[in-house]
Design a protein that fits this description.
Blueprint: H1 4-19, E1 24-28, H2 31-36, H3 38-41, E2 50-51, E3 61-62, E4 66-70, H4 71-74, E5 80-84, E6 101-105, E7 115-120, E8 124-125, E9 137-140, E10 150-151, E11 162-164, H5 172-180, E12 185-189, E13 193-199, E14 203-204, E15 215-216, H6 218-229, E16 233-239, H7 243-253, E17 259-263, H8 273-278, E18 284-287, E19 290-291, E20 295-303, E21 306-313, H9 317-336, E22 344-349, E23 353-354, E24 360-367, E25 372-375, H10 384-389, E26 392-396, E27 402-403, E28 408-413
Parallel strand pairs: 5-6, 13-16, 13-17, 14-15, 17-21, 19-24, 22-25
Antiparallel strand pairs: 1-12, 2-11, 3-10, 4-6, 4-7, 5-9, 8-9, 18-20, 20-21, 22-28, 23-27, 24-25, 24-26, 26-28
């Protein structure tokens, strides 16, 4: 049997190689699109350097509500009595400023030609702006340092500089600076795209009436949600125990996806549709020393002259979800940065439990009010409701056949 660590390494190498070949797409920076398509914009990765098309700020502007003054008046050692001229609100450009005058200026407004500093309104006498259209004077305390309370052109970003480098994750602040720079869109690496195929003659869609011997497909819903949670675009299909039908579904979607994930049909018995379809093409099937989730498949299919990576999970729903946590979620999360990483910590068992000594067992559990691990349900891989009630995966490594109350174990959080 393969160890859990060996299979983790194999799956990571397979997936990382596939995701490294993802194409580039254009991401709009329009706030309405960001609000309407939040998942499309969450933590996207730049595919190329973005060069600043203009200076930020693009013009010298006031940092405060106050009075704009010229160099001659700012340099005086004593207080200066100045004639108040027309105000400069944000969004307008005032006329050139002459010595002996002061222009009321609002925060963010363009500093008029001839002005070199802004005196905050709190430092003026009177400390209020005069009524519009009135003739007024103001006394400003001097001297005033040149450049005081003025945001210089390019003091945040210089035109022609690298605004954001390739590989940068687009956080809210970075999307903001792209918008401030006037960029309508930027090149990003396409999200990972995955074809998820549930297999089995016995599967019915959720909501459909069940025929004798059939069950509703839990893997499609559970794994689709798990994949979306880590920023993966998912195409979902369901096929019966028909190898040709499975190969046809893969061929139909192959050009638009980076990876194929199947559930079911991977054991050594009869009617193993995934194994029947993929094994002759070079996909490897074997066992990992893990419970649940022992039967696994991995490799590549040649479809439309390209090598398409394939990961195959068992069909029991807990086996499929635990396999995802152990093998696929870590590498997908690393690729997208979307979703919280699984927190790994140690905890103390609140009860005893047995484990198969030759396998790495992953039991479902919760943390009680005393911080101890309490198991939820048994080890069987069909106990999906117990898995849904769990908040941690409890790791019992190979070589351990029993845990006693008070023993320390490693747990992975599932609800963060």
């Amino acid at each position: 049997m393969r160890t859990v660590e060996q299979h983790q390494s194999t799956v990571r190498a397979l997936v990382e190689e596939a995701l490294a070949r993802r194409p580039v797409e254009s991401l709009p920076v329009d706030p309405a699109r960001i609000a309407a398509e939040p998942e499309r914009h969450r933590r996207r990765v730049l595919a190329a350097d973005v060069v600043a098309p203009l200076d930020l700020p693009p013009f010298a502007n006031s940092q405060m509500d106050g009075y704009a003054v010229t160099a001659a008046d700012a340099a005086r050692d004593a207080d200066v009595d100045l004639l108040v001229v027309d105000p400069v609100p944000a969004g307008r450009v005032g006329p050139p400023l002459r010595p002996g005058t002061a222009a009321p200026i609002m925060t963010g407004a363009a500093v008029p030609e001839g002005a070199v500093a802004v005196v905050p309104i709190e430092q003026a006498d009177p400390a209020t702006f005069p009524a519009a259209g009135s003739t007024a004077r103001v006394v400003l305390r001097g001297p005033v340092a040149e450049g005081a309370f003025v945001r210089a052109v390019g003091s945040d970003v210089a035109a022609g500089s690298v605004l954001l480098a390739a590989g940068t994750v687009l956080t809210p602040a970075r999307l903001g600076v792209l918008a401030a720079s006037g960029l309508a869109s930027v090149p990003v690496v396409r999200r990972p795209r995955l074809l998820l195929v549930s297999t089995g003659e016995e599967l019915a869609a959720p909501g459909e009436p069940l025929a004798p011997g059939t069950i509703h497909d839990a893997n499609g819903a559970g794994l689709a949600a798990a994949l979306v949670d880590v920023g993966v675009d998912v195409v979902v299909e369901r096929v019966p125990d028909d190898a040709d039908a499975l190969l046809a579904v893969v061929a139909r979607h192959a050009d638009g996806v980076d990876l194929v994930l199947t559930t079911g049909g991977v054991s050594a018995g009869a009617y193993e549709v995934v194994r029947d379809a993929f094994e002759a093409a070079g996909v490897v099937f074997g066992h990992v020393a893990m419970q649940p989730g022992g039967p696994q498949g991995w490799g590549t299919l040649t479809v439309h002259d390209r090598a398409l990576p394939v990961v195959c999970f068992p069909g029991n729903p807990v086996s499929a979800l635990v396999s995802f946590e152990a093998f696929l979620r870590p590498v997908l999360h690393d690729a997208t940065g979307v979703g919280a990483p699984r927190r790994r910590r140690t905890a103390v068992m609140g009860e005893a439990a047995d484990s198969p000594v030759g396998k790495h067992q992953l039991r479902r559990g919760r943390i009680d009010v005393d911080g101890r691990v309490v198991l939820v349900g048994g080890p069987s891989s069909h106990l999906l409701a117990a898995h849904a009630a769990a908040t941690v995966l409890v790791h019992v490594p190979v070589g351990v056949d029993r845990l006693d109350e008070g023993d320390e174990v490693v747990v992975w959080s599932l609800d963060e």
